[in-house]
Amino acid sequence: MEIEGVRFSCPNCGASVTIDFKTRVGTCDSCGYTTEFKRNFFNSNDKVINDLTNVVKYFKEKNYKLSARFAEEAMTIAVDNMAAAFVLAYNEAFIDEARNSKSIARFFVKAKETSVDIEELEPLKKMFLSCMTDLDDHEEDILEMAINGNHASEILEFTDAFSPYLIARRANIDFLTPRLKELYKRCAAKCSVPKTCYALLNSIKTNSESPYNGNTFFLRTKTERFYNDFVLPVGEIINGMSNPTLRAKFKNAYERQRGDFEKKMKEEN
Ligand SMILES: [Zn+2]
Questions:
Q1: What's the gap in Å between 20 CA and the centre of ligand 1?
Q2: Number of domains in the chain
Q3: In percent, how much of the chain has pLDDT > 90?
């Protein structure tokens, strides 16, 4: 069979193959040989790539309906393309009349089960960045998805584009859950994520719960909680940065900040 000029041929005899895109199994029209194609084979299909260019273009223009039309088009070949699936989930959650708030969470569960291809990461990144505020509850899911994809440079781009923005806008330190701390550590260990580390370091002074805000170090319990649940974990993340030069630089800045914090904490006791 042929789709948009791309012919699928039999690995055994070279004749044309008919593919069931749902099962990814191709059956040769000539010799009957059956073969299972990988997800990546369909994700890197020219028509799929072309459709996804439009998916991203219209998504960024906030023409979500048209973006979804191209997503459905891409999914006729790449049935479980995660970038296309995200657009459908986004429409379900925020655009369709019968909004379903669970669809984004369901998307991330599926993204976790499916190891996301590098072809899917790039369009996903562009779309995530254009609707970041809608995804602020899903920072952990996003990092997990990028890490499972296992492409270091993509993880770096994802984390370092997404997390600093969110960190700077967090209303308190509750966002730094043990799971998120673990994910930051894993990202830092893989590719340093300097912008994310910088944002964390900055937050020691700027987060609205920080005792630097209004100089509230005298609120002992609150200050101690901030120290234990934020200042120390940030240090752990920075200590694990993979690039030694960056790590040394960040560690220096961190130790100064921590020392200053401890001094102020003591002065109030
Ligand atoms: Zn054949």
A1: 16
A2: 2
A3: 67
pLDDT, tens digit (0-9, with 9 covering 90-100), for 111-144: 888 878 888 988 998 999 999 989 989 999 988 8
Mean pLDDT of the chain: 91
Give a yes or no: residue 30 inside a domain: yes
Q: How far apart are CA 52 and CA 73, in angstroms?
A: 9
Gyration radius of the chain's alpha carbons: 23
The whole domain housing 207 covers 169-269
- Please check whether residue 260 lies inside any domain of the structure: yes
pTM: 0.85
194 falls within a domain: yes
166 alpha-carbon distance from chain centroid: 12
The residue whose two tokens read 């020691």 is: 204
Give the Å distance between the CA of 22 and the centre of ligand 1.
20
Residue 51 CA, ligand 1 centroid: distance in Å: 29
What 3-state class would DSSP assign to 72? helix
Burial class from Cβ neighbours inside 10 Å (0-12, 13-18, 19+) for residue 87 reads buried
Q: Is residue 256 part of a domain?
A: yes
> Can you tell me the distance from the alpha carbon of 255 to that of 260, in angstroms, rounded to the nearest whole number?
8
Return the ∠ at Cα 114 (arms to 109 and 118), rounded to 5°.
120
What residues have their beta carbon closer than 5 A to ion ligand 1?
10, 12-13, 15, 28, 30-31, 33
Q: Other C-beta atoms within 10 Å of 86: how many?
A: 26
